[in-house]
Write a structure and sequence with these properties.
This protein is of the alpha+beta class. The protein has 7 helices and 29 strands. It has a 6-stranded mixed sheet, with no helix packed on it. Strands 17-14-18-22-21-19 form a 6-stranded mixed sheet, with helices on both faces. A 5-stranded mixed barrel has the order 23-26-25-27-29. The model has no long low-confidence stretch (mean pLDDT about 95). Bound molecules: adenosine monophosphate and magnesium ion.
Length: about 400
Amino acid sequence: MISVEDARAVILAACPVLTRRALSLGDALGCVTAGSVVAGHDVPSFANSAMDGFAVRAADTAGAPVTLDVVGTAAAGAPPGVEVGPGQAVRIMTGAILPAGAFPADAIVMVERTAPAGAGRVSIEAAASAGDHVRHPGEDIRAGQTLFEPGTELGPGHLGVLASVGAATVDVVPKARVGVLSTGDELTSAPDDLRPGQIRDSNRPMLLALLAKAGCLPVDLGSAPDDEAAITAAIERGVAECDAILTSGGVSVGDFDYVKVVLDRLGDMHWWQVAVKPAKPLAFGTVAGTPVFGLPGNPVSSMVSFELFARPALRQMMGHRELFRPQLPAVTDEPLRRHPDGKVHFVRVVATTDDDGRLHVRSSGGQGSHLLRAMALANALAVLPDGAGVDANATVKVMLLT
Ligand code: AMP
Ligand code: MG
């Protein structure tokens, strides 16, 4: 048996970062920056008003209330207009250019602190100080400033910032296109009644969804029967179209495990028994340079194997710095028992935050590797090292899945 850490090390070494590419902002959500992003201009790029109100020279409002002549209106988006002379004000809207010129306005009085004072006049009710409600050039971003370091995952806010400096594209590590192939004569995706021995293909939709959640571009390679030619055709399609491939089933020691036969012929594979439960059988290698993860067929094993091995490797390919799910200590609300077997057990648990501010866990249900519902209900995996498990009220390490 190989340890989780040793298997991971081999996998990560064979999954290099994908080649960088310029993407439009609309396509870059969730991608990781491939270089530093530098601002081309200041934001704001001109002094403007933070309020709807009146642009004034603060000195003219000393001894308020005072009445000023309103000599014009400045709207957002309008070119620079009237200037403010002594004793004058300009009606101004949020985002409009601050009146400049020989007597530049230096403060905004919000409309709520003013009152109409007859035609073309306004009463300023409270004295303003220079700079009141003025947005200064470069206050948010300076031209030449590094906005984001390489390795930054672009969220909605980042895309907004890039748009604010006029970036049309951004250099990122692209999302990995990852193919999913399920294998097994017993599988069906048809809505018909099941024939004896048939089961529905649950791994393929599950793995496609796990990929989407991991920020990859899932590619459905369908389901192949336990047949060498069919599996070969699907793998070859995957290698041609994808950056990585996940297969499920056929990597154990069964008589019809043709995934093993095909991958051994096409690629350079490791066939591991990992010291972990669930997810013991795992195949990993490359076919024509494309990483291939041969995940076990049992649905819980397939999902845990994806979490432990495929997800970190795919994140690395997509340029992420943080590869692994967070692990936190939690309190057991019930005993989590296991038998010593030389393996680390990942127990499906529901983790909640209690009034004591700590994370608490209890089992989400049966722990068999075919019991997918208990896996679906779990939001974390409790990590039980080899031994007899833990008592209630003990501290256990948990890997958060959400
Ligand atoms: P295998 O790894 O092919 O020996 O399969 C192990 C177990 O997982 C068997 O009970 C299979 O029927 C089941 N299995 C394999 N592939 C899938 C799948 N795509 N969806 C649900 N169960 C599967
Ligand atoms: Mg099978």
